[in-house]
Amino acid sequence: GKRVAYAAMDGKRWSVVVDGQQSADYGEYIPTPFFSPDSKHVGYLAQTGGDGKTTQLSMVVDGQQVAEYSLVLGNHFVFSSDGALEFLAVKRPDDAKEGSLYRVKLVPAP
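The structure assignment produced for this chain is given below.
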């Protein structure tokens, strides 16, 4: 493909660079960005919040953050052949030990 995406660190903050355009700064770690099969969409998991005790994670697709989660299962994500991104995530209230498991399916805008 003709597109390039990578995670970059500046000090203690991470960002993602897609086709030369840098994203917003995120928390401590961003796994490798990934492209949809047709290379039209790029996604990555980013640390987007937290109060020092908890960490919040968001899946970011085409630069847009989706809902925050307490935990996203896995560390290697891919778009399916139909262009959807599916993953498992946990949401739990602040300071709670238990939460709800969600099967999330994101379909990027064309």
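Interim note for the steering committee: The CA atoms of residues 84 and 107 lie 5 Å apart. DSSP finds no helices and ten strands in the chain.
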